[in-house]
Design brief:
Helix content: 40-55%
Radius of gyration: 27 Å
Structural class: alpha+beta
Number of helices: 15
Strand order of the largest sheet: 13-12-16-10-9-18
Distance between the termini: 45 Å
Shape: globular
Largest sheet: 6 strands, mixed
């Protein structure tokens, strides 16, 4: 009896000592982890901003804290405690965060700080393709490390963490997402720019300007184009013209059956309607073929940008003069192109001005000396917002882009259930500049069949005046009142999902319907008068999923969307 009691006391003492040791190590780990997360977030911002001197000092401090955090969560007692039923999940999550931050500190950040990102931007009107190829492996290694860390951090279950660690994780995830955007852009650029810019022979591309004042699903009507010619890293701007000059095509070009069912033959007849579909490869290939038939020139791809992209690039290049002496500056270019030009220029002059503006900004991008990180940040922001889209006519290059944002593809599979809201002008006018859109989606309960219900609310508010706009802006006035914006709002279900019902301002509304790339599509015609706001509420179903999150994919507009996603617990919780 005495021996059993003595044994129990020894075991109990060992347990208490182990618990006390884990508690002490947990306190150490939390302190180091919060410090390391803050330093990693700070360092990421410095890398993106190009502050190398401060970044080197921050890296040294981060490596010290991350090494201590990893050490505190890797001893035998901690490993044993990770398998306990009560605290095990929390301890496991803390160790995952510590490992992820330490790998960033030892692998990704040192590689990024060693890499000469100036290789990714032109100098003297030419991109040094040999130098770019030389740094490609380092850029790819850094990106792979950042993406791996991003995935590992995303997999950490944050709900049960203590508030201080949970907030540090949330903040760190946001900053690493930003960093991952920059490294992805740099990696893709390092791999793709040499062939795209003519390392193996000359290339020709169409640079098209999306006019956000007349909305289309990918952003705006393709209003103007410029022919770009690339060879051995140098880019030269060639002929420019308006989409209207390409005319109309009868018989219509062949369309995918789903596109034709949704939009009749319009995308195959009118170059301005090729992007009624949100799937950019379809729009770009149609425009390329129309250009070939009209001009006899075959191009290797299509690059689409909008005035908001130009505003981002102008932050890197500084103001640019358009032929004719009109200055374009970052703060005013959107207003200049989408509003003021319609008040003072004829239709023909507007098209020429749009084409010349895009060409001048990209010409400055190649010829001016710019900060590479500022430029990469501008590209990253534009790509993240889907304002720069590129399609290559060469299948092997196009496959490299996959379902990336820059490719503008409408994926046939979702990692997270994604609802699309795409806007097409139905007024025959240029009133899109005055629209202020919002979109909110709420994830509903888990259903017995494994699907989830989503509730979407889209609002459109018009800031258009009641008088004083030019005929160029008012256009055809197909809504009746020329100051009323008619917008075709197409709601795309998640892949494999469905659209159940829709109400406009609380009342049932007629819907056009169809499918595109494994998504059900419902389209409502929404008229918004000056100063008015309309609300479209749609109920959707996901495919089978346990995920409690949802994402939105939206038409880029002149004024950014206001969005909110209300998530729910996963179905296995």
């Amino acid at each position: 009896m005495r021996r059993a009691l003595l044994g129990a006391l020894v075991v109990g003492s060992l347990l208490l000592a182990t618990v006390g040791w884990i508690g002490f190590r947990g306190w150490q780990a939390r302190a180091h982890l919060v410090n390391a997360a803050g330093l990693a977030r700070e360092l990421s911002a410095q890398v993106v901003g190009g502050d190398t001197d401060r970044a080197l000092r921050t890296l040294a401090a981060l490596q010290e804290q991350s090494r201590a955090a990893r050490g505190a969560t890797s001893d035998p007692s901690w490993r044993l405690a990770r398998h306990t039923p009560v605290a095990g999940d929390d301890l496991d999550a803390v160790q995952q965060i510590a490992v992820a931050i330490d790998e960033l500190a030892r692998q990704a950040f040192p590689t990024l700080l060693r890499t000469d990102l100036s290789s990714l931007v032109p100098a003297g009107g030419r991109l040094d393709l040999a130098r770019l190829t030389a740094v490609s492996a380092e850029v790819s290694q850094a990106n792979e490390s950042v993406q791996r860390t991003r995935r590992n951090l995303a997999a950490v279950p944050a709900d049960s963490l203590v508030s201080q660690v949970r907030q540090a994780l949330t903040d760190l995830r946001g900053e690493i997402d930003r960093l991952a955007g920059l490294t992805t852009a740099a990696d893709q650029g390092a791999r793709l720019l040499p062939p795209l810019l003519g390392v193996n022979g000359p290339r020709r591309y169409l640079l098209v300007s999306q006019n956000l004042a007349e909305l289309r699903a990918t952003g705006g009507m393709f209003g103007a184009y410029a022919l770009m010619q690339a060879e051995d890293g140098a880019v030269r701007m060639g002929r420019q013209g308006s989409t209207a000059s390409l005319g109309r095509f009868t018989p219509a070009l062949k369309l995918p059956a789903e596109t034709r069912a949704l939009w009749t033959d319009l995308p195959g007849i009118y170059p301005a309607d090729v992007n009624l579909t949100p799937h950019f490869p379809t729009a770009a290939s149609l425009y390329r073929e129309m250009f070939r038939r009209k001009t006899g020139t075959t191009v290797d791809g299509v690059l689409a940008v909008d005035p908001v992209v130009l505003s981002y690039l102008l932050k890197a290049t500084g103001p640019v003069l358009v032929p004719g002496g009109v200055p374009l500056a970052s703060e005013k270019v959107v207003q200049t192109l989408l509003n003021e030009s319609y008040q003072r220029l004829s239709v023909k002059e507007q098209d020429e001005f749009f084409a010349a503006s895009a060409a001048s900004v990209f010409d400055a991008f190649f010829k001016k000396n710019v900060n590479p990180r500022v430029l990469l940040s501008a590209f990253d922001r534009a790509i993240t917002e889907r304002r720069i889209l590129f399609w290559s006519a060469r299948p092997e290059e196009q496959r490299t882009f996959g379902d990336s944002r820059m490719a503008g593809t409408l994926p046939e599979q979702d990692t997270v259930p994604t609802v699309g809201v795409f806007l097409n002008d139905g007024s025959g006018a240029k009133l899109g500049y005055y629209l202020r859109p919002t979109a909110n989606v709420t994830v509903g309960a888990c259903r017995p069949d494994g699907r989830r219900e989503l509730r979407l609310r889209v609002t459109l508010r018009s800031t258009a005046p009641r008088s004083g706009l030019s005929e160029s802006v008012l256009g055809l006035g197909m809504a009746g009142d020329p100051y009323t914006a008619r917008t075709l709002v197409s709601v795309y279900s998640p892949a494999g999902g469905a659209v159940l019902e829709a109400r406009l301002d609380g009342a049932e509304t007629a819907l056009g319907s169809g499918t595109e790339r494994r998504r059900q599509v419902a389209t409502a015609s929404v008229d918004v008068g000056p100063g008015a706001e309309r609300a479209l509420e749609v109920t959707l179903l996901t495919a089978k999923t346990g995920v409690g999150q949802a994402e939105l994919r939206l038409t880029p507009t002149a004024s950014p969307w206001t969005t909110q996603v209300h998530s729910a617990p996963s179905c296995d919780q």
